[in-house]
Amino acid sequence: MTKRFVLTSFDIWLPHHTSNSSDDLLEFVSQFKSLPYDLNFLRKLPVDVPTASEKVIAKIGETQPDYIICCGMAESRSKLSVESNARSTSHITKDGSESILRTSIDLDNLVRESVALEISHNCGRFVCEGLYYSVLNFINLHCQFHPHKSSCIFVHVPILTEKNLSVILKDFLSIIRCLALSPTGERL
Fold first, then answer.
1. 19-23, 32-36, 38-42, 44-48 — which is least confidently predicted?
2. I need a surface site. Which of 9, 92, 95, 121 has the fewest CB within 10 A?
């Protein structure tokens, strides 16, 4: 069975940006017409946690994907970064600390054969982390007992250049391939 994906990116948010590298990357991915996966793109999300989260959650409900790959730009990074977790100070645990949600995907396995891919444990404190937390929370609350459970990762994309584009694109496609090849019902 063909694995279904939802791939998201953000719009630009600072005056000096002419594009968002996460959206640029998804534009390149969308040009591969021969990929054997069901890829659903949700591009140029507004840089606003509630609105972006609402749109992504609606897309999850509409497409029932196996995997959601949310992407955001990380100007200061040089490699693709797969985020292990998302934190929220608006969701406080019983002991009064911030809530932390982790992806169900085995990230060590996911990055094993990559060149420009690393695991990050700091999603930032901006819209990227807010969206990631919202999607992980939605999956935990609403999809836990659903027969078709989705998994989500967040990937931070560095600024794309002529030098790094082919490596970044290759590693991003390897993420998709690795997820798609995981056995049905089993998460990496």
1. 32-36
2. 95
Query: Looking at the DSSP assignment, which residues form a beta bridge with residue 157?
Result: 73
Structure confidence at residue 185 (pLDDT)? 44
- Choose the CATH number for 4-180 among 3.30.160.390, 3.30.1950.10, 3.40.30.10, 3.40.630.20: 3.40.630.20
The residues, any chain, with a CB within 8 Å of residue 8's CB and separated by 6 or more, are: 26, 41, 42, 43, 45, 52, 56, 59, 68, 69, 70, 71, 131
Mean pLDDT across the chain, nearest whole number? 89
**Distance between CA atoms of residues 164 and 74, nearest Å:** 14
Q: Is the pTM of this model over 0.90?
A: yes
For residues 145 and 110, give the distance between their C-alpha atoms in angstroms, rounded to a whole number. 25
